[in-house]
Amino acid sequence: MMAALFLAWPADGCHGRLLAPASGEVEATMDAKPLSHPWTGRVKASVAGQRLLLAAKTALAVGLSWFLASHLPGEAEKYAYYAPLGALVGMYPTFMGSVRVGLQTLVGLSLGIVLAAGVLLLGTPNIVTISLAVGLGVLLAGQRRLGAGREYVPVATLLVLIIGGRNADVFSFGYALEMGLGVAVGLVVNVTIFPPLNLDAARQRITRGRTILISQLEDVATALTEQWPPRHEDWAGRQEVLAGAVNDIRGAVHGAHESHKGNPRAYRRSRHRLVAEGFEDLAVLEDITFYVRDLTEVLAAVIWEGPLEGHLRAELCAPMGKSLQSVADILTAWDDGSIDKDMFKAAHDAFGALALAIAEQEESDGARLSPGAAVAFDVQRILLALRRRLLHDDGTD
């Protein structure tokens, strides 16, 4: 069956949709092969280093909070074990994240204490009132504004009513004070000891995203001109890989932005500029990835049996491949920092040749759907997005 299928495809390359012989249907397997890049190891090493630093700072914060809590005067010293918990809760990879999580935890804890106090005002806690109070705490925990503090509403209520008992007022004061002390210690440790900026991870993931797009465009360009059937077809199944790369970039850029908030190491203007550029790169790469995924889907549907109808003439293969390669060259130059206007002129010329070939095809094919026009439109939008980002113009000249 596969031998007959291969013979059905013209030997000189791209001539249209691949049609299976009348004797049956053929299932085309297009398993996407994972893309390996040297930047992957750097990203993992950076993340591992940040995790080790966070672990060390957390251990220090827990130890300091325990030491300080054990020396508080009065009844609060009895509940010193809650201070390390507060320090643990308040430790977050970024300073503003620590502030947000710490405050949310204290707010949730306070709501739980207030709820427990309401039960105590009604009389001695019993199985009914405790159960109702915890249930109400769970309802309050459904408020998304409480963030990380949501889970502490029913927990604090239960602890005050069961552990506090007759000394609920003393327990509540000590519980809140020790937790607050732990959160404060965690914040101080986090902001004074190498608060992370996460710029390297963002830059590395942007570079990796560009590399994935370059590989995709080059593989598609090669597939358009190589001997058919194609020796590799993994490019047709990389939709999830492309989407995953954008998600990684988005997470890294937003992480870098978050790490700059309230960070004393972020006062340098150049670092703010790098974060802003990261957002600009993210926006452009999101657009380009969408267009690359679109043209990949169109071409895969033309080559293999798919839900889209269309016909791609052989005359379009060479100019289309050249146009896609010219876009890949611009992305490569962007990654290397060697971009210039001549590269855009070459890409514009390649796109012009493709547009001319498509116009000639439309004259002969009439009203037939043209996947070549769809691909050309995606290429044009990619070039426009790159011009706006790299040359700061709208591409109308």
From TrEMBL:
The primary site where this protein sits is membrane
What is the membrane topology listed in the Swiss-Prot or TrEMBL record?
Multi-pass membrane protein
Q: Name one GO cellular component term.
A: plasma membrane
InterPro entries from the UniProt entry: ArAE_1
Entry keyword annotation includes Hydrolase: no
The keyword Disulfide bond is annotated on this UniProt entry: no
Q: Which residues form a coiled coil?
A: none
- The name this protein goes by in its record: FUSC family protein
Q: Which organism is it from?
A: Arthrobacter wenxiniae
